[in-house]
Protein backbone atom coordinates (compact mmCIF):
# COMPACT_ATOMS: atom_id res chain seq x y z
CA UNK A 1 0.00 0.00 0.00
CA UNK A 2 1.28 3.45 -0.90
CA UNK A 3 2.54 5.57 2.04
CA UNK A 4 -0.17 8.13 1.17
CA UNK A 5 -2.93 5.55 1.55
CA UNK A 6 -4.03 3.98 4.85
CA UNK A 7 -3.58 0.31 5.66
CA UNK A 8 -6.17 -1.66 7.58
CA UNK A 9 -3.68 -2.17 10.41
CA UNK A 10 -3.16 1.58 10.73
CA UNK A 11 -6.90 2.25 10.87
CA UNK A 12 -7.52 -0.50 13.42
CA UNK A 13 -4.58 0.64 15.56
CA UNK A 14 -5.82 4.23 15.62
CA UNK A 15 -9.38 3.25 16.49
CA UNK A 16 -8.28 0.96 19.32
CA UNK A 17 -5.71 3.39 20.72
CA UNK A 18 -8.27 6.18 20.83
CA UNK A 19 -10.75 3.97 22.69
CA UNK A 20 -8.00 3.31 25.26
CA UNK A 21 -7.20 7.03 25.62
CA UNK A 22 -8.32 8.46 29.02
CA UNK A 23 -11.10 11.00 28.59
CA UNK A 24 -11.85 10.00 25.01
CA UNK A 25 -13.88 11.17 23.13
CA UNK A 26 -14.46 14.47 24.97
CA UNK A 27 -10.71 14.93 25.32
CA UNK A 28 -9.11 13.91 22.06
CA UNK A 29 -5.38 13.67 21.39
CA UNK A 30 -3.83 15.52 18.47
CA UNK A 31 -4.45 13.56 15.26
CA UNK A 32 -1.47 12.04 13.39
CA UNK A 33 -1.84 14.77 10.75
CA UNK A 34 -4.28 17.52 9.76
CA UNK A 35 -5.42 15.76 6.59
CA UNK A 36 -6.72 12.24 6.12
CA UNK A 37 -5.94 11.00 9.63
CA UNK A 38 -7.58 14.05 11.18
CA UNK A 39 -10.84 13.04 9.49
CA UNK A 40 -10.46 9.34 10.28
CA UNK A 41 -10.07 10.35 13.93
CA UNK A 42 -12.97 12.81 13.74
CA UNK A 43 -15.23 10.15 12.26
CA UNK A 44 -14.30 7.81 15.11
CA UNK A 45 -14.93 10.49 17.73
CA UNK A 46 -18.41 11.19 16.38
CA UNK A 47 -19.19 7.46 16.24
CA UNK A 48 -18.09 7.10 19.87
CA UNK A 49 -20.27 10.02 20.95
CA UNK A 50 -23.15 8.64 18.91
CA UNK A 51 -22.75 5.22 20.57
CA UNK A 52 -22.93 6.77 24.05
CA UNK A 53 -26.03 8.80 23.19
CA UNK A 54 -27.74 5.72 21.73
CA UNK A 55 -27.23 3.95 25.08
CA UNK A 56 -28.61 6.93 27.01
CA UNK A 57 -31.63 7.26 24.71
CA UNK A 58 -32.78 3.81 25.81
CA UNK A 59 -33.05 4.66 29.49
CA UNK A 60 -36.43 3.93 31.08
CA UNK A 61 -36.15 5.87 34.34
CA UNK A 62 -35.76 9.43 33.03
CA UNK A 63 -38.26 11.94 31.65
CA UNK A 64 -39.18 12.58 28.01
CA UNK A 65 -37.14 15.80 27.93
CA UNK A 66 -33.91 13.92 28.60
CA UNK A 67 -34.64 11.33 25.92
CA UNK A 68 -35.51 14.11 23.46
CA UNK A 69 -32.15 15.74 24.23
CA UNK A 70 -30.42 12.42 23.52
CA UNK A 71 -32.26 12.08 20.21
CA UNK A 72 -31.24 15.59 19.12
CA UNK A 73 -27.64 14.86 20.08
CA UNK A 74 -27.82 11.65 18.03
CA UNK A 75 -28.94 13.64 14.98
CA UNK A 76 -26.03 16.04 15.38
CA UNK A 77 -23.38 13.37 15.87
CA UNK A 78 -24.76 11.31 12.99
CA UNK A 79 -24.57 14.28 10.66
CA UNK A 80 -21.00 15.05 11.76
CA UNK A 81 -20.02 11.39 11.36
CA UNK A 82 -21.33 11.35 7.79
CA UNK A 83 -19.61 14.65 6.98
CA UNK A 84 -16.31 13.21 8.21
CA UNK A 85 -16.83 10.06 6.14
CA UNK A 86 -17.35 12.17 3.02
CA UNK A 87 -14.18 14.12 3.79
CA UNK A 88 -12.21 10.85 4.04
CA UNK A 89 -13.52 9.87 0.61
CA UNK A 90 -12.64 13.27 -0.86
CA UNK A 91 -9.07 13.06 0.39
CA UNK A 92 -8.57 9.45 -0.72
CA UNK A 93 -10.02 10.07 -4.19
CA UNK A 94 -7.79 13.12 -4.57
CA UNK A 95 -4.72 11.13 -3.45
CA UNK A 96 -5.62 8.38 -5.92
CA UNK A 97 -6.07 10.88 -8.74
CA UNK A 98 -9.67 9.76 -9.29
CA UNK A 99 -11.31 13.15 -8.82
CA UNK A 100 -10.47 16.69 -9.80
CA UNK A 101 -9.09 18.22 -6.60
CA UNK A 102 -10.74 21.60 -7.16
CA UNK A 103 -14.18 20.01 -7.37
CA UNK A 104 -13.73 17.30 -4.71
CA UNK A 105 -15.69 19.16 -2.03
CA UNK A 106 -18.56 20.25 -4.25
CA UNK A 107 -21.91 18.51 -4.69
CA UNK A 108 -20.77 17.36 -8.14
CA UNK A 109 -17.11 16.25 -8.05
CA UNK A 110 -15.52 15.89 -11.49
CA UNK A 111 -14.37 12.31 -12.08
CA UNK A 112 -10.95 11.53 -13.57
CA UNK A 113 -11.44 7.75 -13.57
CA UNK A 114 -9.50 5.76 -16.20
CA UNK A 115 -11.52 3.88 -18.84
CA UNK A 116 -12.50 0.34 -17.92
CA UNK A 117 -12.33 0.76 -14.14
CA UNK A 118 -15.19 -0.88 -12.26
CA UNK A 119 -17.36 1.13 -9.89
CA UNK A 120 -17.33 -0.15 -6.30
CA UNK A 121 -20.70 0.37 -4.65
CA UNK A 122 -19.19 1.01 -1.20
CA UNK A 123 -16.72 3.82 -0.71
CA UNK A 124 -13.42 3.54 1.13
CA UNK A 125 -14.63 6.17 3.59
CA UNK A 126 -17.72 4.14 4.42
CA UNK A 127 -15.49 1.12 5.07
CA UNK A 128 -13.39 3.19 7.48
CA UNK A 129 -16.63 4.34 9.13
CA UNK A 130 -17.79 0.73 9.50
CA UNK A 131 -14.40 -0.22 10.95
CA UNK A 132 -14.88 2.52 13.54
CA UNK A 133 -18.22 1.01 14.54
CA UNK A 134 -16.62 -2.44 14.58
CA UNK A 135 -13.97 -1.11 16.96
CA UNK A 136 -16.73 0.04 19.31
CA UNK A 137 -18.43 -3.36 19.11
CA UNK A 138 -15.16 -5.17 19.76
CA UNK A 139 -14.40 -2.92 22.72
CA UNK A 140 -17.88 -3.37 24.22
CA UNK A 141 -17.95 -7.13 23.69
CA UNK A 142 -14.46 -7.56 25.15
CA UNK A 143 -15.71 -5.77 28.26
CA UNK A 144 -18.47 -8.38 28.51
CA UNK A 145 -15.88 -11.16 28.56
CA UNK A 146 -14.18 -9.48 31.53
CA UNK A 147 -17.25 -9.05 33.73
CA UNK A 148 -17.25 -10.66 37.18
CA UNK A 149 -20.97 -10.27 37.90
CA UNK A 150 -22.19 -12.78 35.29
CA UNK A 151 -22.09 -16.55 34.94
CA UNK A 152 -19.70 -18.63 32.85
CA UNK A 153 -22.28 -19.06 30.08
CA UNK A 154 -22.43 -15.29 29.58
CA UNK A 155 -18.64 -15.07 29.40
CA UNK A 156 -18.42 -17.95 26.93
CA UNK A 157 -21.16 -16.56 24.72
CA UNK A 158 -19.53 -13.13 24.74
CA UNK A 159 -16.16 -14.65 23.78
CA UNK A 160 -17.73 -16.36 20.76
CA UNK A 161 -19.24 -13.05 19.69
CA UNK A 162 -15.94 -11.22 20.26
CA UNK A 163 -14.06 -13.70 18.09
CA UNK A 164 -16.62 -13.26 15.32
CA UNK A 165 -16.45 -9.45 15.56
CA UNK A 166 -12.66 -9.52 15.32
CA UNK A 167 -12.90 -11.69 12.22
CA UNK A 168 -15.50 -9.40 10.67
CA UNK A 169 -13.28 -6.38 11.28
CA UNK A 170 -10.26 -8.15 9.76
CA UNK A 171 -12.34 -9.09 6.71
CA UNK A 172 -13.53 -5.52 6.30
CA UNK A 173 -9.96 -4.25 6.57
CA UNK A 174 -8.88 -6.67 3.84
CA UNK A 175 -11.68 -5.37 1.61
CA UNK A 176 -10.56 -1.78 2.24
CA UNK A 177 -6.99 -2.56 1.24
CA UNK A 178 -8.15 -4.48 -1.86
CA UNK A 179 -10.32 -1.57 -2.99
CA UNK A 180 -7.54 0.97 -2.50
CA UNK A 181 -5.03 -1.27 -4.31
CA UNK A 182 -7.42 -1.77 -7.23
CA UNK A 183 -8.18 1.94 -7.36
CA UNK A 184 -4.48 2.79 -7.35
CA UNK A 185 -3.91 0.34 -10.22
CA UNK A 186 -6.77 1.81 -12.25
CA UNK A 187 -8.94 -1.29 -11.93
CA UNK A 188 -11.62 0.17 -9.65
CA UNK A 189 -12.98 3.42 -8.34
CA UNK A 190 -15.56 4.77 -5.93
CA UNK A 191 -17.36 8.06 -5.62
CA UNK A 192 -18.13 10.61 -2.93
CA UNK A 193 -21.75 9.87 -2.10
CA UNK A 194 -23.32 12.93 -0.50
CA UNK A 195 -25.76 12.02 2.24
CA UNK A 196 -28.02 15.06 1.76
CA UNK A 197 -29.73 14.33 5.07
CA UNK A 198 -32.79 16.51 4.66
CA UNK A 199 -34.19 16.02 8.15
CA UNK A 200 -31.32 18.02 9.65
CA UNK A 201 -31.74 20.92 7.21
CA UNK A 202 -34.37 23.53 8.01
CA UNK A 203 -34.61 24.36 4.31
CA UNK A 204 -35.72 20.85 3.34
CA UNK A 205 -37.38 19.20 6.36
CA UNK A 206 -41.13 19.83 5.77
CA UNK A 207 -41.86 19.88 9.51
CA UNK A 208 -39.21 22.56 10.10
CA UNK A 209 -40.37 24.52 7.05
CA UNK A 210 -43.92 24.49 8.46
CA UNK A 211 -42.65 25.68 11.86
CA UNK A 212 -40.76 28.54 10.21
CA UNK A 213 -43.85 29.59 8.25
CA UNK A 214 -45.97 29.51 11.41
CA UNK A 215 -43.52 31.86 13.14
CA UNK A 216 -43.66 34.40 10.27
How is the topology of this model organized?
Blueprint: H1 8-19, H2 36-56, H3 64-96, E1 118-119, H4 124-145, H5 152-184, E2 188-189, H6 206-215
Parallel strand pairs: 1-2
Explained architecture:
- The protein is mainly alpha-helical and 216 residues long.
- It has one domain (8-215).
- 61% of the residues lie in helices and 2% in strands.
- The protein contains six helices and two strands; from the N terminus they run αααβααβα.
- It has helices at residues 8-19, 36-56, 64-96, 124-145, 152-184, 206-215; strands at residues 118-119, 188-189.
- It has a two-stranded parallel sheet with strand order 1-2.
Shape: flat
Task: Bin the helical content.
Answer: 55-70%
* Strand proportion: under 5%
- Rg, rounded, reads 20 Å
Number of helices: 6
Strand order of the largest sheet: 1-2
Largest sheet: 2 strands, parallel
Order of helices and strands: HHHEHHEH
User: Unreliable segments (pLDDT under 50, ≥5 consecutive)?
Assistant: none
User: Which structural category fits the helices and strands?
Assistant: mainly alpha
Q: What count of domains describes the coordinates?
A: 1
Q: Please tally the β strands and state the result.
A: 2
What is the averaged pLDDT score? 91
Amino acid sequence: MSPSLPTAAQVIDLHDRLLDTPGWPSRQPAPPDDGLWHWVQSNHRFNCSLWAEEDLARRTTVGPAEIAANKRAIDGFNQARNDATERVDELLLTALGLVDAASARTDAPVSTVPPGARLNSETAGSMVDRMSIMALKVNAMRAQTERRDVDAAHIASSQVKLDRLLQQRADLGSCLEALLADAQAGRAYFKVYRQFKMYNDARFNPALVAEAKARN
